[in-house]
């Protein structure tokens, strides 16, 4: 019976390690895609600016920055509520990198938990970090990406031109 319990426990630990490894890949991919989105947003603004559509450039920039500003405030409020608000978080949020910051912190936390035995408290902490990161990412999609995508579709329809950067 003891051998069966050891095999069962070993299987659960291997499964947990495999799942956490996949989580790490997913978190890294999320960071990379969010960074790519920031770059393509900047390219879209610059493209509109140099195509003498300065009003479109302003609208695109506003559709990026205004909702993102409120998401940064929301993320900072969550940190303040948890009692974990530090200077580094203020700096990352000033540059509108709340999602990247949260997923990077989550990535580091999972790496640390993989090196040690996962206690119930650590698993709960990681679950709360995941919840915050994914909720903020969902809000980002709804408040930033959707209005911007609608506006980019409008600009493509009016200008009768589709470029790589504006066709998200």
UniProtKB/TrEMBL annotation:
The chain crosses the membrane at residues 24-44, 56-75, 132-154. The keyword Cell membrane applies. It comes from the Eukaryota. It is found in: Cell membrane; Membrane. Its main location: membrane. The keyword Nucleus does not apply. GO terms for cellular component: plasma membrane. Keywords: Cell membrane, Membrane, Transmembrane, Transmembrane helix. InterPro entries: XK-rel (IPR018629), XK-related_scramblase (IPR050895). Pfam families: XK-related. It is a multi-pass membrane protein. Belongs to the XK family. PANTHER family: XK-RELATED PROTEIN (PTHR16024). This is XK-related protein. It comes from Trichogramma kaykai. The lineage of its organism: Eukaryota, Metazoa, Ecdysozoa, Arthropoda, Hexapoda.
């Amino acid at each position: 019976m003891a051998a069966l319990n050891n095999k069962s426990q070993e299987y659960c630990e291997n499964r947990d390690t495999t799942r956490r490894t996949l989580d790490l890949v997913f978190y890294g991919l999320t960071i990379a895609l969010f960074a790519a989105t920031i770059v393509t947003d900047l390219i879209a603004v610059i493209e509109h600016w140099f195509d003498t559509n300065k009003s479109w450039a302003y609208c695109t920039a506003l559709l990026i920055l205004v909702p993102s500003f409120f998401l940064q405030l929301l993320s900072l409020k969550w940190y303040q509520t948890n009692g974990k608000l530090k200077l580094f978080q203020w700096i990352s949020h000033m540059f509108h990198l709340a999602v990247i910051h949260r997923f990077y912190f989550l990535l580091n936390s999972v790496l640390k938990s993989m090196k040690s035995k996962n206690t119930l408290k650590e698993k709960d902490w990681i679950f709360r970090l995941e919840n915050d990161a994914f909720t903020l990412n969902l809000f980002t999609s709804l408040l930033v990406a959707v209005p911007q995508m609608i506006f980019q579709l409008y600009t493509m329809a009016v200008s009768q031109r589709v470029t790589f950067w504006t066709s998200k």
